[in-house]
Amino acid sequence: MNTQVTPSAAHHASRHANQSLLQLADQCVKCGLCLPHCPTYAKTRHEADSPRGRIALTQGWLTGQLAMTPTLAAHLDGCLLCRACESACPSLVAYGRLLDGVRTKQAAEAPAWRRFWTRHWLGALSSARIMDVLGRLAVLYVRTGAARFVETARLIRFRGLAAPHRLFKTLAITARRIAPQAPEPADLDLFVGCSGASAQGGALAATRIVGEALGLSVRIASESLCCGAMQRHNGFAEDADRARAQCAQVYGDRPLVGVSSACIAELREHPELARTWEVCDYLDQRDWPDTLKIAPLARRVLVHEPCSHRRLLGGNAAVYRLLARIPGLEVAPLPDNARCCGAAGTYLLQQPTMAAALLDDKLHHIRDLKPDIIVTTNPGCALHLLAGVRESGLDIEVCHPVELIARQLPSSSI
Ligand code: SF4
Ligand code: SF4
């Protein structure tokens, strides 16, 4: 009698996924050259919090030698996915792809209740409508004194309250309504994304002002779609693929420009969106008429370079070139820009202790250099830096570089 059991399609797919992940992990020769570049390893000095250590743990888990215990999960979850290790690796280990895959497997094997919970809170954070409402609630939270009450009653001692409290206080500063426009053809479409109105309304409005000053028609689309990056980096690859495919369906045949470096990096992974522009690159490559006068600004600016912009979009040179157009502006990079600030998408909510420790290093430089303004092209980093600056009692503005340009144009309403 034939007793052979035919493996199910699901089992087959999972074995294939395991093998692909193992192949990626096995490219690591354990040389350790990535270790000095890893921010979490720099903080804990624990091999398991380094890229090499995380790869070894992954290999142990995928080959069945290690179980996914809470300790093992904590070491993997502690990764920022900043990909500093990937840039430093001589063996070209595709660390980002490996860890995204590991998180997908972790999520698939998690208890149903946890999958349900994580999927839904990620869904809420990646919904433009919900983020818009959160932005407006955040304004009320501060204006009604609720935020002050939470602070004076020392409710922020409770771990679950501290991170949302911080986020709300920061969103109260950045939230801004965006007026959608009719779908007329334009020279470029601006990608609003899920956090556009709550975190980057100023940058979107500024892009329209600068674009129009350069003779371009700019459309802020009414469809606020999410690129799917948050889902991908939290193990929900199918949801992420769906979100990105929807973006491709809407924007695939139109020139698309984004103000958030992390979203652009994610969008570009889709073949139909591979030519999505980062706004500073886009504006930098346009013709700037000699007649366009940019007013001087005697301020000192530090440029924060988000990991997504440095490592996935080819660097921040266009940001510096754009800022150099403002006469009188003193521009310098924020020291140690190669090291992640700790925001890392949802990381600042999930790993608040490490996120705060990494932010502290940035604040140390900021206190030393005392800039008037910090610019950054990623909304998560902007919120994280702004929260840190405010909590340190510093009077420093945090904004998108394009906002500075827009303000210096004649009759700017920004
Ligand atoms: S540098 Fe690359 S090969 Fe060397 S330990 Fe790090 S990930 Fe592995
Ligand atoms: S992605 Fe960043 S935090 Fe994660 S292992 Fe690599 S360097 Fe360390």
From TrEMBL:
<feature type="domain" description="4Fe-4S ferredoxin-type">
    <location>
        <begin position="19"/>
        <end position="48"/>
    </location>
</feature>
<keyword id="KW-0408">Iron</keyword>
<keyword id="KW-0813">Transport</keyword>
<keyword id="KW-0249">Electron transport</keyword>
<keyword id="KW-0411">Iron-sulfur</keyword>
<keyword id="KW-0479">Metal-binding</keyword>
<feature type="domain" description="4Fe-4S ferredoxin-type">
    <location>
        <begin position="70"/>
        <end position="101"/>
    </location>
</feature>
<dbReference type="Pfam" id="PF02754">
    <property type="entry name" value="CCG"/>
</dbReference>
<keyword id="KW-0677">Repeat</keyword>
<dbReference type="InterPro" id="IPR004017">
    <property type="entry name" value="Cys_rich_dom"/>
</dbReference>
<dbReference type="InterPro" id="IPR012257">
    <property type="entry name" value="Glc_ox_4Fe-4S"/>
</dbReference>
<dbReference type="InterPro" id="IPR017896">
    <property type="entry name" value="4Fe4S_Fe-S-bd"/>
</dbReference>
<protein>
    <recommendedName>
        <fullName>Glycolate oxidase iron-sulfur subunit</fullName>
        <ecNumber>1.1.99.14</ecNumber>
    </recommendedName>
</protein>
<dbReference type="InterPro" id="IPR009051">
    <property type="entry name" value="Helical_ferredxn"/>
</dbReference>
<dbReference type="GO" id="GO:0046872">
    <property type="term" value="F:metal ion binding"/>
</dbReference>
<dbReference type="GO" id="GO:0051539">
    <property type="term" value="F:4 iron, 4 sulfur cluster binding"/>
</dbReference>
<keyword id="KW-0004">4Fe-4S</keyword>
<comment type="function">
    <text>Component of a complex that catalyzes the oxidation of glycolate to glyoxylate.</text>
</comment>
<dbReference type="Pfam" id="PF13183">
    <property type="entry name" value="Fer4_8"/>
</dbReference>
<dbReference type="InterPro" id="IPR017900">
    <property type="entry name" value="4Fe4S_Fe_S_CS"/>
</dbReference>
<dbReference type="GO" id="GO:0019154">
    <property type="term" value="F:glycolate dehydrogenase activity"/>
</dbReference>
